[in-house]
Amino acid sequence: MSSSNAYPIGIAGMKWNDTDRQAWRDSTSIKREYQQEVVPKIEALRARFDVEQYGALSYDENRFPLFCIKTKTWDANKPIVLITGGVHGYETSGVHGALQFADTQAEKYAQYFNIIIAPCVSPWGYETINRWNPLALDPNRSFYADSPAEESANIIKLVKSLDQDVFIHFDLHETTDTDETEFRPALSARDGIEYVPGTIPDGFYTVGDTDNPQLEFQAAVIESVRQVTHIAPADEHGQLIGSDMVQDGVILYPMDALGLCGGVTTCVYGTTTEVYPDSPTVTDGECNDAQVAAIVGGLDYVLSVTERT
Length: 309
What we know:
By secondary structure, this protein is an alpha/beta fold. It has a single domain (18-308), classed as Zn peptidases (Aminopeptidase, 3-Layer(aba) Sandwich), CATH 3.40.630. It has helices spanning 18-26, 34-37, 39-43, 92-104, 106-109, 123-128, 150-161, 178-191, 215-225, 284-308, and strands at 49-56, 65-71, 80-85, 114-118, 166-174, 205-209, 239-240, 243-244, 250-253, 269-275. The strands form 2 sheets. It has an 8-stranded mixed β-sheet, sandwiched between helices. Strands 7-8 form a two-stranded antiparallel sheet. A hairpin with an 8-residue loop joins strand 1 and strand 2 (65-71). It is globular. It starts with 17 loop residues before the first helix and ends with a helix. Mean pLDDT is 96; it is low at 1-5. Its cofactor is Zn(2+). Keywords: Hydrolase, Metal-binding, Zinc. One of its GO terms (molecular function) is zinc ion binding. Pfam families: AstE_AspA_cat.
C-alpha cells in the first residue's frame, strides 16, 4: 500500500478541531439503508426468537433503533454467548454473518447456551460505509466507562443488563483494503500524526485477548473457517497488521486497555474475527459463511471441552 500526499481534511500535523470534524461528517453520504437491508432480517426472526430493542442512536432515533436477538429457551443454568456484529458499520459480513448465524444455527445451540446477538452495533456506520460514528469516534476504541460513543455505551448497558456473566463472546469484524486507503489515513489526519503505510493481511485471522488468549479456542475457530476461506499468512516479519502472529492466523491485543468490544465482558472464551472480503477468490456469501463457521467452530470447541470435563 502507498500513502497519499495528504488527507483532504485538516492541517497536517494538527489534530482536528470541531470544524474539521464537521467537514469530515459533511463528506459522508448514505450508500445503503439499515431499515431496508438489516431491520427486515431482524424482524423476520421474531417468530423464532425474542427480538428486543436495547437502545437507539440520538442522531436519528427512528432511523437507528438498536436491536438484539435472544434465544427463547433462556435458562439461568446455561452459559451466555454474546455475538456482536457491525461495531464497525462498514464491515458488512459482521452484520450479515451474525444474522445468518441466528437464522441457520442459533436454535441448534440454544439447547446448550443462552445466545444474544447484537447484529448491527453501528447502523450509521453501516449506512455510510464508515469505521467511525458521526463524531469521528471509533466505536471499537470506545468500550470504557462513560463512553462518548453511543454505539459502545449501548452495548455496555446491554451487557450489564444480563442476569449473569457472558461466557463466550464473538465480535465479528472484517479487515478491508480501505483500512489502508481511507480509514488509517483519516485516523492519522484526525490525530495530527504522520501516516505510515501498512499492509492488509490476505485472508481470515482472529484477534485474541493478550490477558486471556485461549489459544486452543482460537485454533478451533481458525480450523472451522479454513473449510470456507483461506487463512492469512504472516508477513515477512512474522506479523499481521503489525502484531506478532502467535499461531496460525492468530494475533493478540489487550482488549480492555484498548477499549475494544472484545473487552466489554469478562468472558472465559472470546475472539474477534477478521474476514478479508477484498480477495478476488472470495464472495460476499463466503464472507458471511466464514463468520458463521467461526462461531460454530468456537461453540463446538467449548462443548467438547465441557464433555471432557
